[in-house]
Amino acid sequence: MQSVPQIDKPTLSIVVPLFNERQHVPLLLEALSEVISTIELPAELILVDDGSTDGTWESISRQDAQIFSLRAVRLSRNFGKEGAIRVGIESAEGDAVVIMDGDLQHPPQLIVEMIRLWRDEGFEIVDTVKKERGEESLFYKFCAKAFYWLINKFSGVNLKSSSDFKLLDRKAVEALLTMRESTMFFRGMTAWLGFKHTAIPFSVPKRVAGKSSWTFRGLAKLFLDNIVSFSSVPLQIVSAVGALFLLFALGLAVQTLSLYARGEAVTGFTSVILLQLIIGSCVLLGLGVIGMYVATIYEEVKGRPRYIVSEKITRERLFKTKYSDDSLDSQQVGNIG
Ligand code: UDP
Ligand code: MG
Asked: Using CB atoms within 10 A as the burial measure, which of 105, 116, 174, 310 is most buried?
């Protein structure tokens, strides 16, 4: 009986979240095959279909594994990019895990340099930073700037120009997986981890097809979720505003009482109504900020799963390459659909 050849454990895992990227799937696989053939490491590609409705899953199912193993996970609905990244990282087995977008806006050729920095120079996290932000509207650029400035001020984590295109050493992956919060903020969480970091600059190319799935509402939610998950400064601001108002109120009380004692008390509807409105708005804003934290606590306490998997595909590597072990058959070694 012929023994089934043992496939070596992948050293490199590439995780790609995909949401309505049908047109990109074949292009992505082609580009990654080219890159992986130049890196002398056994690799696996993990595609996470984040509830696409455009036939992305069917497109993935048609793909063959070639010089890398292909694993695909289909989520039961759209859970958002952060959830999809989490699924991919949890299933990755490699000693290094590269996370990248599926729309080819993260140039696959950079992986070669990322691997070099990890393998030869011992960096445990290789980030990529955007040299310029590609084709984004002025408003989007402004919001992104304001967001990173606030995150930096509030939490001390500097994320300026950072992207989700990263290489993580197994150590960093294990550390990331110990972070149990249900609202992931991949970029921020990897910055928070520490480890030996380096960054490669890159220019964001145009999307090959389709359009970005971000909406203004989606970005606003991401902004608030991430500020809340990364910092409690907004709560302290509420207290600070309260303290300022108390000081102001004390000053005003002293002035009003002294005027009253002298029989010169200020009369007037305008000042009273203005004070009412200002204080009322501040109280409501404060409650809103507290409400955001309560909502986050509520989400965490519910402890729902971060995602639900509906289907999986595993296709083992098909072809022997110069780095495969000798026991690997030169042709097909298994194709589990
Ligand atoms: N993505 C995802 N789930 C979503 C939204 C996006 O998995 O709900 C994936 C998308 O398929 C792509 C990556 O996340 O691979 C980046 O998305 P997009 O290009 O829309 O964002 P941008 O490049 O504009 O930041
Ligand atoms: Mg994109």
From this structure: 105
